[in-house]
Amino acid sequence: MTDVVSGAAKKLFLHVGMEKTGSTAIQGCLQLNLAELPKIGFFIAGRECRASSVALQHRLAKACLGNPRIAGHIVPASAEEWGGWLAEFQASDCPAAILSSELFSYATAADIAGLAERLKAFEVVVVVYLRRQDSYVEAQYGQHLKGIYQLGGTPFDRNKFLPGNIDYEAFCGAWASVFGAKRLRVRIYDEDNAAHAIYRDFGEAVGLDVGRLTLPQKTVNPGLLEFQARVLLALRDAVADKDARAAIAQLVFIYNNKVGEDRPHSGRPKWLIPRERRAELLRMSAASNANVARIYLGRADGVLFAPKPEGDSEPAPIDYTEVARLLEYALATSAKKS
Fold it and tell me: Which of 9, 29, 10 is nearest to 221 (CA)?
C-alpha cells in the first residue's frame, strides 16, 4: 500500500525519466497491471483503455512543454483531458497516482512551474532516474543511429555528440526549486542490473509492492547489440533506397526486441563513443555528480555512480553467428507472411 497519510492531500508520483533509464520498461509494467494497480491504491491515467494508457501519459506530458518541436509527432493532450484525468483521480478511492513520461525531462523552468500549477491540489513527489553520463550518451548515440539509418543523412561526429541534460545537478535543481528537494527522489539506473531490477527499484521509490504485480517477461525496447549497430552502419551507405533501409532497420529492431531478454547488457555497444570521449564526459560531470550525490542522496563521499571497467574504444570483429541468427529470423518471418 502507498505511504499516503489518511486525511492528507492525495499523492501524485511524477516519473520524469530521464530517457534511456528504463522508462519504457516501467511504463510497460504499469500498463500490464492496469486492473491490479487500483486495488493496491494507485490510479493510472488512461486505465480505462489498455491500448492508450502509455500514449495518454506522453500526451499529457507533451501538453506541458513549451517547445512544440520536442516529440513533434505526439499530439498534446487538451485542457479537458488534463482536467478530466485529475478529476477522475480525485474522485477515485486511490490515495496515490502515477504519471510517467520521459518527455518531462525536456521541461524548462517555466514548464515545470506551469506543471506545478496544474498539480497544486496534490502532494507531488518527483521520481528521476539518472544514468552515468558516458553510458547515457552511448545509449543516446545508438538511438541517433537508428534514426539516421531510417531517415538518411550523416551521423553526428561521435567525438562531439552531446544529447543534453548531462548536468544532473542543474537538471535535479530545476525540479527541486519548484517542488522542493525533499520531494525529489533520485534513483540510479544501471544497465548491468539483473532482470526485473528496474521494477523493484521503481516500486521502492513510490511505495508500490511489486510482488502484487505481473512483471513483464521480456526486455522492453532493448538497446542494439554490437553486431546490430555495426550491420546498420555498414549498410547505411550501401543501401540507397530509403524504403529498403527502413525495412532492413525494422527487421533488425524487431529481432532485437525478440532476443533482447536473452542477451546480457555487456553485449551492448561500448565503442560508439570513443574511450577518450567517454572519459571526457565523466570529467565534465564530476563536480555536478558529486553535488547530486551529497544533496539528494545524502552521500558524504560524493560518489553518485559506481566505477566500471573501460570498454573497448574500437569494435570487436563481427560475430557472424549473430548475423546468421538474424538472417534465419528474417527467413522464418518471411515464410510466415507468404
Answer: 29
User: Do the beta carbons of residue 125 and residue 13 sit within 8 Å?
Assistant: yes
Q: How would you class 325 by CB atoms within 10 Å of its CB: exposed for 0-12, middle for 13-18, buried for 19 or more?
A: middle
Question: Which superfamily does 11-212 belong to?
Answer: P-loop containing nucleotide triphosphate hydrolases (3.40.50.300)
Largest Cα span, the chain: 65
Written as nine digits, the cell of 48 is 480505462
131 three-class SS: strand
pLDDT digits (tens, 9 = 90+) for 163-174: 877 999 999 999
Q: What angle do CA 303, 305, 308 make, to 5 degrees?
A: 120
The alpha carbon of residue 253 and the mean position of all alpha carbons in its chain are separated, in whole angstroms, by 17
φ and ψ of 140, to 5 deg: -65, -35
Question: pLDDT per residue over 45-74, tens digit each?
Answer: 876 654 578 999 999 999 999 999 999 989
State the cell numbers at 265.
Answer: 547488457
Give the pTM: 0.86
Query: Domain boundaries in the chain?
Result: 11-212, 226-286+307-337
